[in-house]
Specification:
alpha/beta; 3-stranded parallel beta sheet; 3 helices; 3 strands; 43% helix; flat
Length: 70
C-alpha cells in the first residue's frame, strides 16, 4: 500500500501464526524453532525456511540479502 513490494519482506517467527501471516502477505517466512512452538507445528504451516539457531538465522539472512536486488 505504501509502495513496498511484499514479496521482498522477510518475517522471522516462532509460532505457526507468524508463519501463516508471512505466507499470506507473500513474503519470505522463516520459522525459528527456539521459541513458542516446536519444530513439528512450525513445519506443518509450510515456512519457506526453518532455522534452529540464531547463527543459522544470521547465515540465512545474509544469503537472502546477497540474492536480492536493491
Amino acid at each position: 500500500e505504501r509502495g513496498h513490494d511484499p514479496s521482498r519482506a522477510v518475517t522471522v517467527g516462532d509460532s505457526p501464526i507468524d508463519v501463516l501471516a508471512a505466507n499470506a502477505a507473500g513474503g519470505t517466512s522463516i520459522a525459528g524453532t527456539w521459541g513458542a512452538a516446536a519444530e513439528g507445528p512450525l513445519r506443518e504451516v509450510a515456512p519457506k525456511h526453518v532455522v534452529r539457531t540464531v547463527t543459522e538465522l544470521e547465515v540465512l539472512l545474509l544469503q537472502l540479502r546477497s540474492t536480492r536486488t536493491p
